[in-house]
Amino acid sequence: MNDSQRGGGDQTIRPANLELSFDLLKPGGRSASTWNIAEECPIALRFNGAIFAVMLASPGDLEDFALGFALSEGIIDAADELQNCKIKPLDGGIELDITIAGKRAVRLEAKERRRALAGGSGCGLCGIQSFEEFTNPLPRVSSALCVPLEVIRRAGKDFPDAQELNKLNHSVHGAAFVDASGEIKALREDVGRHNALDKLIGAVLGAGLDPASGFVLLSSRAGYELIHKAARTGFPIVVSISAPTGMALRAAADSEVTLASFAGDGELAIFSHAERISG
């Protein structure tokens, strides 16, 4: 990504966290108090002049979002194919004006997948136009990575404290990339779990980190769309806080992604390709 900028004029991007004043009513009486709430807004992703999608997301880490979305949606295959991203605050939302390499623009037009629809903060595949999106095989993830259970447990304990935004408002999802030693190398947060993962993908690849060298921690359940994005990026292991869906399990098995969930009391339920987790 060679350039990014914020829009001019009086239009500004709101912070991802807002402090709200409110009346707190309890049996002993009424008092003034404050609370932190997560902001969300429509974010339009425009590729080479054409709107591809409008997503509800947290207004932060938008360059990472642009790159991660383009990669996980198959619009581009490598980070250097995204040439430019201009962040433009608009009335009521934000536009990401993204320029991608010419050959990729031709492929995008040929695929006829432009959604130009609103995607909610809970929707990772909104506006898909055919069932082919679900039946097309995912890429297979090849990695010799093997991580001890204790490393995953330690990262899981560190994960909540590393989610700075969620510590304030208790209402956003987190996605973290953890190396083989258990160190959290990158973490992104968003009101949408799939947006958080897109932002993490952008952060990891934008920093030149190898997705196959570590694993992903998710603060949510593992739905199909998250495995879809992980497989396209090349993450070999995905660990979620909550249990996965059946469709996610099948996608993980087919794409050779190791999918696991915390099961309480230090236990880890491994649903696919268990050979990558030892101990």
Layout of helices and strands, plus pairs?
Layout: E1 17-26, E2 29-38, E3 41-47, E4 50-57, H1 62-72, E5 82-90, E6 93-100, H2 102-111, E7 118-119, H3 132-135, E8 147-148, H4 149-162, H5 164-169, E9 173-179, E10 184-190, H6 193-206, E11 214-218, H7 224-233, E12 237-240, H8 246-255, E13 258-264, E14 267-272, E15 277-278
Parallel strand pairs: 3-6, 4-7, 8-15, 11-12, 12-13
Antiparallel strand pairs: 1-2, 3-4, 5-6, 9-10, 9-11, 13-14
Describe this structure in words.
The model is unreliable at 2-10 and 127-131 (pLDDT under 50). The longest helix is centred in the middle third of the chain and has 14 residues, at 149-162. This protein has a domain at 147-278: Cytidine Deaminase, domain 2, CATH 3.40.140.10. The chain has 279 residues and is α/β, with parallel strands linked by helices. It is flat and about 55 Å long. Strand 9 (173-179) and strand 10 form a beta hairpin. It is built from eight helices and 15 strands. It has a six-stranded mixed sheet.
CA-to-CA gap between the ends?
Answer: 41 Å
**Which spans have pLDDT < 50 for at least 5 consecutive residues?**
2-10, 127-131
Reported by name, the CATH topology of the domain at 147-278 is: Cytidine Deaminase, domain 2
* Assigned CATH class of the domain at 147-278: Alpha Beta
Rg, Cα atoms, Å: 19 Å
The CATH homologous superfamily of the domain at 147-278 is called Cytidine Deaminase, domain 2
The average pLDDT is 87
**Helical content class:** 25-40%
Give a quick account of the main beta sheet: strands, pairing sense, barrel closure. 6 strands, mixed
What structural category arises from helix and sheet content? Answer: alpha/beta
Number of continuous helical runs:
8
